[in-house]
Amino acid sequence: MSEQPAFLLMHDYRPEAKAYWWTTFLLGTAVFGLSLVEVAKLSDAAVLQVLVGVAIAAVTGLFPVRIPGAKVSVAGAEIFVFMLLLIHGPAAAAIAAACEAAVGSWRTSDRWTSRLGSPAMAALAMYGCGSAFALAVPLLDTSGAGDRGPLFALLLLVALAYSAASTLLTGSLMCVKRGEPVRPVRLLRAHGWLALAYAASASVSGLVYMSFDRFGSEMLLAIFPIIAMFLSTLHFYFRQAETQVVAQREKFAAAEHAVAEAARHVVQLQASESRFHSAFTHAAVGMMLVSNEYRILQANPALCHLLGRSETELAQSDLKAIVHAEDVGVLQAQVAGLLSGADSKFTAEVRCLHRHGIDVWVSTNGSFFSAGDSGERCLIVQMHDVTARRRAESRLQHIAYHDGLTNLPNRSHFLEQLTRAIVQAAGDPAAMFAVLFLDFDRFKVINDSLGHRAGDELLTTAARRLRECLRPTDLVARLGGDEFAILVEHVRSDAEVMELAERIQGVLRAPIHLGEAEVTTSASIGITTSAFRYETPEQAMRDADIAMYRAKSQGKAQYALFDSALHTEVSSQLWMEGELRRAIEGGVVDVDFQPIFDLRSRRLTGFEALARWPHAARGSIRPSEFIALAEETGLIVPLGDRVLERACGQHAQLQRNIPGIGMLDLHVNVSGMQLSRPGYASRVKQIIAAFELHPEQVTLELTESVLIEKLSAALPNLLELREIGVRISIDDFGTGYSSLSVLQDLPIGEIKIDRTFVTRLANGGGDEVVRAIIALGRSLGKRVIAEGIESAPQLDQLIRLGCEHGQGFLLGRPMSTSDAEVMARTAATQVRIA
Ligand code: C2E
Ligand code: CA
Ligand code: CA
C-alpha cells in the first residue's frame, strides 16, 4: 500500500465507502473547527491548560501500551482526554481526542485516509459523547446529588459510549469498504476490550479530577509525572514483554521448523533407505557392501544363493577370501584404482569359490556407496553369474585347441606355446626348451591292414602313454596323422632330453591290443633345442622334423638330435632351394647329352639328356646335388618339364641339322612325383609333338625304387604313355628288388643295368647279376642297356653276355649339344663310309 501515490487516496474505496469517509471527515473537521472556536472563548489560563492537556495527550499517544498477545494497543492518552472533558468540556476533549488519534494514526498508518479520517472520527465521537456528558452533569447537580459518585459513574458511561462510538465509526467504514453489511453488535463485541480500556482511563481521570477538585491545580503537577511514569513503565514493560514474546515465538517457530524439517528428512531417509533395502534384498544380481579393507558388511540373498553361503557366513568374511586365489590380484588392482580416485567404478571377471568347492565365474562391478546414517564410504559390489558363458567359451577354446581323437592339444595350441617358449628363451637363455618330433614307424601298415578304427585306437593309446610318461608341465600335442610333438621346458642338458626320448620309446614299445590283434609299434624321434636361437616356431618344428628324418634313416625306433652339421646342411639347402627356384624360373637349367651306343656295332643309337645347372657363383651344379632337393620341395615338376622341353628341342634341332642321321633315341629322366601327377602323359605327348619328334624315339627313365613306391599313382600315366608309343625304361635296375611279376605286367620297354653291377665287371668276375638281368630282360621281351661303362674289358664282357646297348665314359661323357652334334655328324659319316 505504501507504494501507492499519495493522491490515490481511495483507490480501493467503493463509492459508498468514499461517501461515508467524506461525510465523517467533513463532520469531524467541522466539529474540530467548532471546538477550536469554543476553546478560544475560554480564559487564557484555561486555554493554556487545554493546550497542555492536548499536548500531553498527543505525546502519550506516541507511546501506546500494547498488550502482549492482543493485536491492538491502547494509548494512555484517553486519561487526559477525559480529564479535559471533566475540567473544560467537550470541545477541549474533542481537540485532544483528535490530536491523540492523529498521532496514533500517523504512527501506525501511512495512508492519508487513515491519518485524516481517524482524528475526524475521534473528534466527532468525543464531541458527541462529551456534549451528552456536559448536558447530563447539570442534571446531576440540579437533582441535589452533591456527591462525586454519580459523576464518576456518568464518566464511565461516557467512556463506554465513546469507545462504542469510535468502534462503530471506524468499524463501519471497514465494513462498507469491504462491501460487507454493518453489524454493530458484532463490531462492539469484537472491540469489547477497547471499552474496558476506556473505562479504566476514565476511572483514572475521575480519580485525578476529584483530587484536583480537592487539592487544587498543584495536584496536577504531581499526578501528571506519576501517570506519565506509570504509562511509560507500562509501555516499556509491555514492549519488553512483547519483544520477549515475539522472540520466544520466533524461537519456538524456528524450533518447530527444525523439528518439521528433521521429521521430513527422516521420512525421506527412511523412504530412500527402504527403497535401497528393498532393491538390495530383492535384486536378482548378487550384491554386497564391502569396507575399504575388503570386509564384507552386508550381502544380499542373491549373492548368498550364488555362492551357496549364508548371509552371516558371508558377512563375517573377507571379499578376498571368497575370490579364487589366482584372481585376487585382478580384483585388488581394480579396487586400488577406485580407492586412489583414478576410476569411479570397476569391472572385472573373476572366479569365486562356491561353498561346494566349485568355481563360479562372476562379472563384478563395483563403485563407492555412502552407507547408513554415518555416511561412511564403502564399496557396493555387484556379482553376476557368467559361469555358463565362461564354460561355453572354454569349451569352444578347448575344441579349437585340441585334437578330437586323442584330446591332446593340437598343432595351433602347440605352436602358440612354442612361440611363448621362444620369446621366454630369448629373454632368458637359462629358460632352455626342447622340441621332440615323433613319428610312428609302422602306423601306415597297421592302419591299412587292421583298419582305421584300430589305427585310431593305436593313436589314442599312444597319446595316453605319452602323457603319462611326461611331467605335467610338458606339453604333448598331436600334429596330425601319426605325428606328435612334445615341448619340454626348463631343460638343463641335451642328455636330459635324450633320456626322455629313450623313456618315450620304452613306453611305446610295449605291445598294444587292438581288438583281436596285438601289435607292437615304435617311433622315430627328432629333437631340437632352444640352443639354435629360433625366432619362429616353424623354424624349431622344421629342425625337429629334419632330425626325425635323420633318425628314420638310421633305422626304426631311433632318435636323433639336431646338430650344427644338420643345421649347416639345412641352411645351405634353404639357400639352394631359393637358388634352384630362380634358376628354373629364369630358364637357366639346361641339359647335357651322353651318347648311347649299340655295343656290338658301336653305332650311335641315341642320347641320354642329363640336367645341368650352371650356377654363377658355384659353377656347374651336378644333379646329385639338386635332384633330391627338387623332389623334396616339389620343384621337380617344373624342372622336369623344363628338361623335357629343352632335351626335345635340342634333340630335334640336332636331327634337323644332320639330315642323313636317321632316327636317334632320346632318353629323359623323370621323377616318380612327375609320373604320379594326373595329365603328365598328355603333357609329354604335347611336348614331343611340339618339336615334331616321334613318340617311339623317346624313352622316359624312371628309377626302380621310385617306380615301386608310386606304382598305383603312376600307373594311369604309364599306360597312357605306352598307348602314345613312348618307351619306359627302368633306371638303376637291380637296386630296387622289384618282383618279376610286377615287371612283367608293367608297360615297360627297357631295363637299365645299374652302374654298380657294371663296375664289378672290371676285374673279370662279378658277372652273375648282369647275366641274370640280361636273361630276365630277354625272357620278358625287354630291351637291356648298361650304364657306366668305363673300360674296354667291361665293354667286352657286356658284349659277350649279350647286352645290346650301353653308355659310359669309355664311349662318351655327357656333353654339350654342339659336341653331341659333332659326335652325331661323325657317326653319320662313319655309317655312310661303312
Ligand atoms: P643316371 O640316370 O643314372 O644318369 C647317369 C649318371 O651317371 C650321370 O650322372 C652321368 O654323368 C653318370 N655317368 C655316365 N657314365 C658314367 C661312367 O662311365 N662312370 C661314372 N662314374 N658315371 C657315369 P649325373 O649327370 O650326375 O646324373 C646323376 C643322376 O641324376 C642321374 O643318374 C639321374 O638319376 C639324375 N638325373 C639327371 N638328370 C635328371 C633329370 O633331368 N631328371 C631327373 N629326374 N633325374 C635326373
Ligand atoms: Ca638315367
Ligand atoms: Ca642310372
Describe the structure.
With 834 residues, the chain is an alpha/beta fold. A hairpin with a 2-residue loop joins strand 11 (512-514) and strand 12 (517-519). The longest helix is centred in the N-terminal third of the chain and has 65 residues, at 218-282. The structure holds ligand C2E and calcium ion (2 copies). Ligand C2E is lined by residues 594, 610-611, 622-624, 627, 640, 643, 669-671, 701, 731-732, 787-790, 808-809, 814.
Bound molecules: ligand C2E, calcium ion
Shape: rod-shaped
Structural class: alpha/beta
Instruction: Give the N-terminus to C-terminus distance in angstroms.
Output: 158 Å
Strand share of the residues? 15-25%
What share of residues is helical?
Answer: 55-70%
Number of helices: 31
C-alpha Rg, in Å?
68 Å
Descriptive tags:
single chain, 834 residues, alpha/beta, eight-stranded mixed β-barrel, five-stranded antiparallel beta sheet, 59% helix, rod-shaped, binds ligand C2E, binds calcium ion
Brief summary:
By secondary structure, this protein is α/β, with parallel strands linked by helices. The chain has 31 helices and 23 strands.
Summarize the SSE layout with pairings:
Layout: H1 15-40, H2 44-62, E1 65-66, E2 73-74, H3 77-88, H4 90-108, H5 112-142, H6 149-178, H7 184-190, H8 192-215, H9 218-282, E3 286-290, E4 296-299, H10 301-307, H11 311-315, H12 319-322, H13 325-339, E5 345-353, E6 359-371, E7 376-385, H14 387-401, H15 411-427, E8 433-440, H16 443-450, H17 452-468, E9 475-480, E10 483-489, H18 494-509, E11 512-514, E12 517-519, E13 523-529, H19 537-553, E14 559-561, H20 564-585, E15 590-598, E16 603-615, E17 619-621, H21 623-633, H22 636-657, E18 665-669, H23 672-675, H24 680-690, E19 698-703, H25 704-709, H26 711-724, E20 727-733, H27 740-745, E21 750-753, H28 755-760, H29 768-780, E22 783-786, H30 792-801, E23 805-806, H31 817-833
Parallel strand pairs: 13-14, 16-18, 18-19, 19-20, 20-21, 21-22, 22-23
Antiparallel strand pairs: 1-2, 3-4, 3-7, 5-6, 6-7, 8-10, 8-13, 9-10, 11-12, 15-16, 15-23, 16-17
Helix pairs in contact: 1-4, 1-5, 1-6, 2-3, 2-4, 3-4, 3-8, 4-5, 5-6, 6-8, 8-9, 16-17, 20-21, 22-31, 24-26
The chain binds ligand C2E and calcium ion (2 copies).
